[in-house]
Q: What sequence folds into this?
């Protein structure tokens, strides 16, 4: 099919245009530093402070040791922040760059890659703090910790298809980003980020059904020096494959229309 | 080798927040801009380009000309690959570089150096060349120390210099420049002009959309004229610019007109040398705007300030190797004076291969009404010839006659449809002497004879195409005069069809807004059904006196498609 070939050609060109998406993704972050003192580190600061505050209250509520709770919480918050930004910013990928898209011919995938690069770099800032915090909290470094890097890479790969798929849909249906934002905020409350999964006795089922939980555990566990649970790995891998396939199918229909919608 | 090919490309924008229902009644537009329409799902769409075909090879520098909203920017964007055509295909071989917007595409907070670097990166300049080109750009812009501060602090002129320098630092295979939004001043910087020319000559193919004709003439070799999303002319730059100026009518191109001359009476003409040139206002008038598309249809409009004196002819030289056989001539004459004195009443249609020197063949003679609608005569076949003319045969030409004339030579014979007749108009209380100019072809005309004819009440003008002849009218050409400066001429008509002469069967095909007191306008009718009787019903009550003088022409072919077919040939820049 001609559309399929066009999409593949665009994606291939998109990957090949790494000078563009890498440098511009980097630039997006660099610019956030301009004329500021801390730049993106404000985000890190804010989440660091909220982690400390939450630890103070919830470690008492849950009757757990402050140290291990703090480690769990800060790792979880950092990964969740990354996930939720991937989701929410992913929605507006193309709409945000509509000026550029309309003026300069570039492969569509390149915009998604740029967006993900920028999100990753912000996460990298937070990771620095997380690493420090985990060391201070005495979390052991084991073989499992090495899995952090591939785990993040897998997450990035998923972030890209998400940015593509939702980016295309949101360009057409401008309410979608709001919906996603609401869902993500609700998800934050029902996913074990600041509470432990095993605190729920019988109702733990619904946590397992939450795909975001799988992604969360996929990266949080290695950070805490543990292997991610099998169920989590399965969900993530299925999501990666299925997500890309779905994005490909949708792109064959929607990609040609994208520039008309932004 | 660079190449750009467009094949029947159409681009239609969906407009999601317009209410399709409220626009339905106004879907015929009367102005510039793309045609508003509806897609199958009822969304309002804007047809920015329709059926555009082009073929451009290495070395061509193409000007893209047209009114605002005619589709120039869209054309460039579709070539650049920013828009995928909703129909048709675009093939581009070679590296593309596009300068399409108004601003620097990079963030304002970047310093000049960074802006150069990132803008070049965006444009696909390769890593290795980045440094060398960056220096070249910095030197050209002469921004000096300003290159180290954010672009935010630059004046508009400095930003423009930067943008221009970046755009011209690396010669691509296909360069697209859209300066639709007033950056024509780029070329008036001396240095920039020099650099621009040097740079443009290095690019293999250039597309330049601009309103600045000096620029276009000095840089471009060919041009494409767009109107409402379609190509109406294409070819060498000079002809196309002429065509652009003449826009407002049917597709136009360049033609050579032989001089207006006095000519002796036709009976003495045979064998006699052609008439002598005369000294008159026509003689020193500038050559009239005219158009020739190389196939058959041509228009000539004389300068209203320069009437013809004496007996005269209007001629056309179709050029060497372009002999055509004219089979139909449509002519319209408007007298300057109200009493039509001194107008030409008879013309001969003549052909010649040597410019009417020795070879003069008369194909047909026709009676010409002064001050009336266009009249058509079918010319019997006498073989193809390079030059054709209308020779005034009457003595009755005095100062100022032949006023405004339109001539339409056509090499297609009129098709005959016998038996049709005007079925007059309503109300019958006011007597309407309806003169039918029905020539039996699907293009039929009806003219109200006298200016003073008035219509009262709701009225219609109708046609009977004859027993057994059923047409589906898809377009009509109508011209309405105000009739003495009185108000409430008909603004909207319903196009109706009937199987039984509008007794019981009355179906409305479409509702169309028509302009008054203008040149004949062609209006599309939505597809409906075939029928024997068709009429235009005035959709507003008129009050004592108006439809003035009307010409009406029905056609089975929608106006737009016909035009596209004719211009598709014109779109090949083979000349």
A:
């Amino acid at each position: 099919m001609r559309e399929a070939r066009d999409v593949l050609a665009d994606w291939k060109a998109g990957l090949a245009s790494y000078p563009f998406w890498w440098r511009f993704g980097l630039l997006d972050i660099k610019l956030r530093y301009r004329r500021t003192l801390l730049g993106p580190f404000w985000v890190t600061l804010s989440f660091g402070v909220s982690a400390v505050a939450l630890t103070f209250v919830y470690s008492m509520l849950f009757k757990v040791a402050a140290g291990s709770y703090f480690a769990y919480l800060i790792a979880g918050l950092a990964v969740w922040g990354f996930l939720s930004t991937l989701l929410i910013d992913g929605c507006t990928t193309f709409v945000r760059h509509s000026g550029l898209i309309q003026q300069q011919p570039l492969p569509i995938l390149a915009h998604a890659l740029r967006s993900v690069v920028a999100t990753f770099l912000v996460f990298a800032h937070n990771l620095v703090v997380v690493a420090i915090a985990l060391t201070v909290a005495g979390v052991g470094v084991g073989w499992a910790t090495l899995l952090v890097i591939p785990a993040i890479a897998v997450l990035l790969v998923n972030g890209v298809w998400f940015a593509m798929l939702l980016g295309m849909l949101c360009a057409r249906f401008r309410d979608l980003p709001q919906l996603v934002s609401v869902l993500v905020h609700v998800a934050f409350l029902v996913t074990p980020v600041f509470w432990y999964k095993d605190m729920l006795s019988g109702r733990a089922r619904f946590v397992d059904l939450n795909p975001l939980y799988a992604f969360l555990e996929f990266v949080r566990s290695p950070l805490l020096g543990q292997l991610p649970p099998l169920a989590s790995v399965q969900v993530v891998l299925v999501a990666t494959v299925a997500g890309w396939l779905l994005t490909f199918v949708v792109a064959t229909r929607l990609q040609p229309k994208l520039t008309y919608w932004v | 080798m660079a190449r750009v090919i467009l094949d029947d490309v159409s681009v239609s924008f969906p407009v999601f927040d317009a209410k399709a229902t409220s626009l339905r009644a106004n879907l015929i537009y009367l102005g510039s801009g793309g045609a508003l329409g509806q897609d199958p799902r009822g969304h309002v769409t804007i047809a920015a380009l329709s059926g555009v075909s082009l073929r451009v090879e290495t070395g061509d520098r193409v000007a893209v000309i047209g009114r605002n909203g005619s589709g120039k920017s869209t054309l460039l964007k579709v070539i650049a690959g920013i828009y995928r055509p909703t129909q048709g295909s675009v093939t581009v071989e070679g590296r593309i570089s596009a300068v399409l917007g108004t601003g620097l595409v990079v963030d304002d907070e970047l310093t000049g150096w960074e802006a150069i670097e990132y803008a070049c990166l965006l444009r696909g300049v390769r890593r290795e060349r980045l440094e060398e080109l960056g220096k070249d750009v910095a030197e050209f812009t002469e921004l000096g120390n300003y290159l180290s501060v954010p672009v935010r602090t630059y004046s508009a002129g400095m930003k423009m210099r930067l943008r221009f320098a970046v755009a011209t630092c690396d010669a691509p295979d296909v360069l697209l420049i859209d300066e639709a939004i007033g950056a024509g001043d780029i070329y008036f910087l001396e240095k920039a002009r020099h650099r621009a020319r040097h740079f443009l000559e290095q690019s293999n193919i250039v597309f330049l959309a601009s309103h600045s004709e000096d620029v276009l003439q000095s840089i471009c070799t060919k041009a494409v004229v767009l109107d409402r999303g379609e190509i109406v002319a294409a070819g060498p730059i000079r002809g196309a610019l002429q065509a652009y100026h003449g826009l407002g009518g049917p597709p136009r191109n360049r033609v050579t007109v032989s001089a207006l001359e006095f000519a002796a009476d036709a009976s003495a003409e045979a064998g006699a040398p052609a008439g002598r040139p005369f000294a008159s206002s026509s003689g020193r008038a500038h050559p009239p705007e005219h158009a020739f598309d190389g196939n058959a249809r041509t228009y000539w409009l004389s300068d209203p300030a320069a009437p013809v004196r004496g007996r005269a002819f209007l001629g056309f030289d179709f050029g060497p190797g372009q002999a055509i056989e004219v089979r139909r001539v449509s002519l319209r004459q408007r007298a300057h004076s109200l009493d039509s004195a001194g107008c030409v009443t008879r013309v001969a249609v003549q052909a010649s291969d040597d410019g009417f020197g020795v070879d003069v063949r008369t194909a047909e003679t026709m009676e010409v009404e002064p001050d009336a609608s266009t009249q058509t005569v079918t010319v019997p076949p006498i073989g193809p010839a390079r030059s054709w003319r209308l020779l005034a045969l009457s003595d009755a030409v005095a100062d100022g006659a032949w006023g405004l004339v339109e001539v339409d030579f056509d090499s297609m014979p009129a098709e005959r449809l016998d038996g049709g007749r005007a079925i007059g108009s309503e109300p019958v209380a006011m007597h309407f002497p309806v003169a039918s100019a029905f020539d039996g072809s699907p293009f039929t005309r009806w003219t109200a004879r006298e200016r003073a004819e008035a219509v009262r009440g709701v009225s219609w003008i109708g046609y009977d195409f004859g027993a057994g002849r059923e047409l589906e009218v898809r377009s009509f050409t109508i011209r309405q005069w105000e009739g003495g400066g009185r108000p409430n001429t008909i603004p909207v008509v319903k196009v109706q069809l009937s199987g039984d002469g509008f007794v019981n069967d009355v179906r409305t095909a479409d509702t169309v807004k028509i302009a008054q007191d203008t040149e004949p306008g062609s209006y599309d009718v939505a597809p409906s059904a075939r029928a024997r009787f068709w009429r235009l019903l005035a959709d507003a009550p008129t009050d004592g006196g108006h439809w003035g003088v009307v010409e009406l022409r029905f056609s089975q072919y929608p106006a737009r498609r016909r035009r596209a077919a004719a211009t598709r040939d014109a779109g090949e820049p083979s000349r």
About this structure: Chain A touches chain B through 22 residues (CB under 8 Å). Residues 2-261 of chain A form one domain. Chain A has one domain: 2-261.
